[in-house]
Design a protein that fits this description.
Layout lengths: L1 H15 L5 E2 L8 H17 L8 E12 L5 E14 L2 E10 L20 E3 L9 E7 L9 E7 L5 E8 L5 E13 L2 E14 L4 E15 L2
Antiparallel strand pairs: 1-5, 2-3, 2-11, 3-4, 5-6, 6-7, 7-8, 8-9, 9-10, 10-11
Length: 222
């Protein structure tokens, strides 16, 4: 099921390149409906992100490192199980419980508030009016320091449910994409699954890999 969802998001990211967009100048467009959702999604992302709010929390994470070979063959190479502790917007400590090798794969739970940038936003013409609303965000810059992609929000409550980020110009990579699925707990929206797919450039070769992380046992201090 996860593979189908990730494939759908990746395909939607490519489809976004061929759709008409609405330009946001100073985060405003000519479409009042689009502005309505952008404004509320921005405010919700700010208020319900535990890192931005400086919340004290901890969670367990299991990360699988998979190498992508010829013909798209995917092989499990490594895995790590760790516990993370955060406070005041920073990671306090990390405890590795188990690892099949000496290498540790640290989980990056940070994600940008994509509704608080000077992006070009767009709706999708195949929107069915269901509980989820997909909003594409792109840039007209030739050098893309910021990610582009798709944000899927709850249509009535405006919080993030999925976020697909693509970095075309990330240092050390030919391509880098980062996808997150979110869930609610104690009034906060937190990623419960994270996928990173990358082509990392080395001295003599390029390493094509995928990191898959599942997050559980989230504890948020009152």
């Amino acid at each position: 099921m996860k593979r189908k969802i990730v494939a759908f998001i990746a395909a939607a990211g490519l489809a976004m390149l061929f759709l008409p967009a609405l330009t946001i100048g100073d985060k405003e467009s000519d479409d009042p409906v689009l502005n309505f959702y952008i404004d509320r999604a921005r405010a919700t992302a700010e208020s319900r992100n535990p890192i931005e709010r400086g919340t004290v929390f901890s969670f367990d994470a299991v990360t699988y490192y998979k190498r992508i070979g010829r013909g798209g063959k995917v092989d499990l190479v490594d895995s790590t199980r760790s516990t993370y502790y955060y406070s005041f917007g920073e990671r306090d400590s990390l405890t590795t419980d188990t690892s099949v090798s000496s290498r540790e794969y640290e989980v990056d739970i940070f994600y940008p508030n994509v509704f608080d940038h000077d992006y070009i936003y767009n709706f999708y013409p195949n929107d069915t009016g269901g509980a989820d609303l997909a909003i594409g965000f792109d840039t007209d810059s030739m050098v893309q320091d910021e990610p582009v992609g798709i944000a899927i929000i709850d249509r009535s409550r405006y919080f993030l449910k999925w976020l697909y980020l693509y970095y075309s110009d990330r240092k050390g990579y030919k391509r880098y994409s980062h996808s997150l699925r979110f869930s609610e707990q104690d009034g906060f929206v937190f990623p419960d699954s994270i996928w990173s797919v990358a082509a990392k450039v080395g001295l003599f070769s390029t390493d094509y890999y995928r990191l898959e992380t599942g997050i559980s046992n989230l504890v948020i201090e009152p």
